[in-house]
Recover the amino acids of this structure.
């Protein structure tokens, strides 16, 4: 089968959509399919990225959002994955008092693209039940039309492991370590966590907050931001930490959260995206209210010794190979309609 994965993103970046595209392309190619990615950069070995495309070449065109070519109609060969819902994200922002979201033209263009995607003929995949329901509420999607296939994880193991990684970074074996993954951004809830962290440090003075990512390496009292790092290093930090946090105000299906849990790291998160589907409260983490007091309390408890949580591995349904199998089944249905 000849497949085009369509997305206007830079797949060299570590984001959730970018990770999804790379892993899906890798798994589908391994299954014998011919896969092109309409994405940047071109070229980007070993992936087959293209700067332009002829729709007639492909059995399936799998759209992952962003700008769809004006006037292009590929009929039933069209498959759309819903990674997030801009309309729901805007609604969240407004309820948080961030009213500037309403005057951002890019948000309204993205909403229009979402609605147009739902109006096209073809199959629909949602990365979480919550995203599916958000599209039903904001764009009139029939929930029965969408199949839920989440993001996945590779279940890769760290090379060095907890003790060696901590030692190489000068972190004592018993230092309580909090881990977050990703950029500093309002939607990621970084500012909220920073306010809580001041109170946490007052009660757990030796605690360390590690941010895996960021623009540059920064070191301060109780804080370490790594700057850009390879994915293998993220796995090492997951192994080395005591608890992970996802304080995002909005998510579709967080790859970072899945990787924490797959690596045996308990996680705290707001009730966003698929968090409630994968976090079992008081077992492998907790869902936290969106305020400083709740985060302070949850972090102090989670960083205590002994930890109140225990690891609960994700099931094989979150492996990329299994996810590619389910996506492939959608493709077969789409190609069979033509």
């Amino acid at each position: 089968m000849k497949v085009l994965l369509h997305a206007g993103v830079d797949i060299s970046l570590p984001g959730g959509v970018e990770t999804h595209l790379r892993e899906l392309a890798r798994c589908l190619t391994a299954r014998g399919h011919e896969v092109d990615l309409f994405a940047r950069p071109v070229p980007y070995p070993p992936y087959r990225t293209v700067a332009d495309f002829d729709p007639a070449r492909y059995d399936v065109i799998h759209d992952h959002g962003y700008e769809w070519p004006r006037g292009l109609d590929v009929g039933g060969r069209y498959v759309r994955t819903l990674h997030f819902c801009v309309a729901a994200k805007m609604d969240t922002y407004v309820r948080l008092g961030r009213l500037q979201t309403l005057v951002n033209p890019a948000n309204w263009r993205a909403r229009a693209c979402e609605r147009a995607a739902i109006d096209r003929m073809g199959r629909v995949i949602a990365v979480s039940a919550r995203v599916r329901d958000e599209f039903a509420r904001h764009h009139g999607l029939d929930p029965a039309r969408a199949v839920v296939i989440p993001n996945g994880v590779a279940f890769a193991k760290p090379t060095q492991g907890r003790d060696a990684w901590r030692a190489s970074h000068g972190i004592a074996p018993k230092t309580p370590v909090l881990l977050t993954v990703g950029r500093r951004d309002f939607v990621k809830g970084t500012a909220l966590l920073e306010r809580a962290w001041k109170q946490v440090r007052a009660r757990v003075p030796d605690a360390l907050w590690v941010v895996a990512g960021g623009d540059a390496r920064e070191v301060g009292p109780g804080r370490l931001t790594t700057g850009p790092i390879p994915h293998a290093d993220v796995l090492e930090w997951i192994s080395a930490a005591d608890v992970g946090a996802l304080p995002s105000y909005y998510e579709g299906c967080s790859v970072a959260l899945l990787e924490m849990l797959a690596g045996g790291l308990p996680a705290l998160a707001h009730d966003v995206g698929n968090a409630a589907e994968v976090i079992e409260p008081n077992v492998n983490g907790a869902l936290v209210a969106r305020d400083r007091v709740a985060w302070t309390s949850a972090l102090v408890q989670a960083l205590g010794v002994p930890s109140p949580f225990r690891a609960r591995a994700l099931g094989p349904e979150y492996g990329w190979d299994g996810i590619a199998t389910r996506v492939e089944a959608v493709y077969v249905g789409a190609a069979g309609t033509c």
Remarks:
- Residues 2-152+319-335 form a domain with the Rossmann fold fold (CATH 3.40.50.2000).
- The longest helix spans residues 320-335.
